[in-house]
Automatic annotation (TrEMBL):
Keyword match Thylakoid: no
Gene source species: SAR92 bacterium BACL26 MAG-121220-bin70
Gene Ontology BP terms: cytochrome complex assembly
Gene3D superfamilies the record matches: Tetratricopeptide repeat domain (1.25.40.10)
Protein name stated in the entry: C-type cytochrome biogenesis protein CcmI
Amino acid sequence: MLLIGSLAATWSIYDDIGAAEDENVAVLLNQIASLEAQTPRMVELNQELIQAVEGRVQKRPDNIYYWVILAQAAIADNDFFVASQYFGSALEMAPQDSQLLAQYAEILFLLDGSKFTQRVGIAVGKAFAANPDNQIVLGLKGIEAFTNADFQLAVTYWQGAQAQLNPDSNIFQGLQVGIDRAREFIKDDFGSHNNETQLNEVQIALQINLSLDVKVPTKPGQRVFIAAVRESGPPMPLAAKKILASQLPRTLVLTEKDAILPGQDLTTETKIRVVARLSISGSATPQSGDWEATSERIDLDEHEGEIILVIDRQRP
């Protein structure tokens, strides 16, 4: 969800350079903006621009526009650390600039492996306070809400970002993918809540205390599949649910209402196991590299109490 534009586009949100001694930088920017595609000439002009800005920023460190140009160039080179330093220098000159705050928050998010670390959360909060309608900020707030399993809020933020975009743009389409995933989880959660409020109507309810071992790495949006399966026989689950890894640890309940196929549910078997799997691909089909936990054999005729599972074993 990288919402950062080209150097020329970034420049356009600020005032003109102004100073006569910076005319060369302005000329280079105009030449770059006039080119329609990535050509050898554009590469050459970009290099000239960066060299010119690197020289001028040493003499004019108070010029935030130069820091932004250098930051964007670093992003183009996938050097997020250097980009964060350049944005930080720009913010020292203009600490309340909402666009700078948004771009700084985004680059920290990328630098920290697309995770909402403490410093990312603080940066996003500052940017949101400065301008709650900023497209970049709304995209980040949507990711934060999704990571925290607040799927409806994620949809709201992402739709706000979409309202500022061309529906044919890649960014708009990327946001739509996120919105569709969030709505899928909203639907799943609605069914889950309904099941839990109807436990007095079910014959079998397995209460599962599920957590991840601290050694298990996770990514935002990564899914965990929980299933009750036969001790032996066909692998099709008798009951199954899926949640986000970010929702763990938590306690959930499997009942016969969570069946996958009609006529094959928890009431049709007596000996089962419960399997929880963190998927690295998002697929419900087990794959090499997934992380799992499997319970001991459970006799449904005698079982009482909570099933405790800790996902800590990686599939070969």
